[in-house]
Structure prediction request, 340 residues.
Amino acid sequence: MQAFQVRAPHDYALVDVETPRAAAGEVLVKVAFAGICGSDMHIIHGENAFVRFPRVTGHEFAGVVEAVGDGVDSHNVGDRVCIDPVINCGECYPCRIGRPNVCTRLEVLGVHRNGGFADQVSVPAANAHRLPETIALDQAALVEPYTIAANVLERMQPHDGDALLILGAGVIGLTILQVARAKGLTDIVVCDVIDDRLQAASELGASQVINSQREDLEAVIAERTAGEGIPLIADAACVPALFPRLVRMASPAGRIGLLGFNATPSDLVQLEVIKKELTIVGSRLNNRKFPEVIEMLASGRLDATALVSHRLPFAEMGEAIQLIDHHPERVRKVLVELGA
Prediction:
């Protein structure tokens, strides 16, 4: 079968590999659609400390069950499924307290194990979520980025009527916007430096969009909140140098959600954090959010097609990577068609 394999940083290709089998407790999935994520690009660029090469990447994907392994009675051949890439041990401290997404022995499909940019992939049956007929497989492939949004919003614990500031209107920023609206938040400000992305945020229901190259973001937030600050800030820009600004813009008792993996240190003035009693939370992957997001999609509260800017066949993976690398301003989500 064919798979997209990253052999080393900047060294990738479609290659022929052996078709996997469904081991005990696993299901073999024929992949229909897969999305290219920024973290896939980090692997290609050699910026992911967790990956081991060579690796078949891809952690946003959906398809149809082709075979079931021994001991699997939860799935049948022909089931339409999307895949949670988070695999945990179930025994360590985070797992014992219900935080499997930060398991001490965490494995992620497409990072620690081969992922979904392949004709077929074998995954733990527990990670394959059956889909209602109302969700098409192309939308189902994008459940995973919405779970990132659902996770950070849960970590931030919104209250009714809270205003939310989202830094960054890329894919993750737009998923946070959509999930926040689906959860009932109505006052949502989105900031970016690319007008096309801000236009997309407006179309998806942002209350206000701000191009921080033309406007002073802190001044705008201070004016719209009468100097009090904003209670919820989701950092989907993931630029460490911006962190002091987030702390200044947050209201007393505010919550800041961080999503980036950048290892560059950020300045932190403890006085600002303590006097406001801020809550600063990290959010990694998703903590069992697939059922929640699948229900949102099935009910029509989310529209995953709004994320997709490009659809390309699997044979054009190389062209897709070049597009994202050289024209990021034109790209939201690139959806790859495999066995569709």
The mean pLDDT is 97. The first strand starts at residue 2 and ends at 8.
